[in-house]
Design goal:
- By secondary structure, the protein is of the alpha/beta class.
- Helix content is 49%, strand content 16%.
- An 8-stranded parallel beta barrel has the order 1-2-3-4-5-6-7-8, surrounded by 8 helices.
- Helix 4 packs parallel to helix 5.
- The protein is globular, with a radius of gyration of 19 Å.
Length: 258
């Protein structure tokens, strides 16, 4: 089976850098993949896209070595299984609050006897290649998001859930959980909590990841030791670059007019 290079890196204690896809467009997905991200995550929770878009975006990513993940909208086995059958090599599951919910996500990612995933890898077997049925359980990344007050209370039990590969931090929702609001990344309590989650992942020998929106944040969290850090989102990259260049072009125009 095709190796999940991102998951292999985490298991070796190495670090990866990823990107986020919120635009439901195959060309945007292929363009991002061509840049050399270690992984790209298609966002079904908040992205401007649907399951139908997966049918075009996952094959577009497949043209390169970038590993395709999907953030599902909720911890629903049917949605997780359909994303995997479409060719995702991992799922990020939001709002996981305890071990029971983490175990539910793991079960949806694993074929029996390790889980309850129904057999039907329609596209996944073509993309994954020979041996998919035998090896999928060891190559599919199951990632739980810790971003609620309940999850923080149950952090150890979530991190020690059998079969869970990683925890991913959503900084904005974590800010809400701490009573700080969504833009609290620079506040001490938020920083301390992020460090605590990272240490807990290390204690339980699973990977730790975090979402960011800037180069400086990504560099900071890589230096912290996170196994995977998301550099940013396709729409944000587009808006930031277009906005900066438009502002510069207008400034040049004003200079010429003077």
């Amino acid at each position: 089976m095709r190796e999940n290079l991102a998951l292999s890196s985490w298991r070796d204690g190495d670090q990866t850098i990823g990107g986020w896809l919120s635009i439901g467009n195959a060309y945007a997905a292929e363009s991002m993949s061509s840049l050399g991200f270690d992984y790209l995550c298609i966002d079904l929770q908040h992205g401007m896209l649907s399951y139908d878009d997966l049918k075009y975006m996952l094959p577009a990513i497949s043209n390169y070595s970038t590993i395709p993940f999907v953030r599902v909208a909720w911890n629903e086995p049917a949605e997780i299984m359909k994303s995997l059958d479409a060719g995702a090599l991992g799922v990020i599951v939001p709002m996981v609050n305890n071990r029971e919910e983490a175990s539910r996500a793991v079960s949806a990612c694993r074929y029996p006897p390790e889980g309850g995933r129904s057999f039907g890898p329609i596209r996944a077997a073509m993309y994954g290649g020979r041996g998919y049925t035998r090896e999928a359980n060891s190559q599919i990344a199951c990632i739980a998001m810790v971003e609620t007050a309940k999850a923080l209370e149950n952090l150890d039990e979530i991190a020690s859930t059998p079969g869970l590969d990683a925890i991913y931090i959503g900084p904005s929702d974590l800010g809400y959980a701490l009573g700080l609001g969504p833009m609290a990344m620079d506040q001490d309590l938020h920083k301390q909590t992020v460090e605590h989650i990272l240490k807990t992942c290390r204690n339980h020998s699973i990977a730790a990841g975090i979402h960011t929106g800037s180069l400086s944040q990504t560099q900071f969290h890589l230096n912290q030791g996170f196994n995977f850090v998301t550099l940013g989102t396709d729409s944000a990259f587009m808006m930031r670059t277009a906005g900066a260049e438009l502002a510069s072009a207008r400034a040049s125009l004003e200079s010429v007019e003077k």
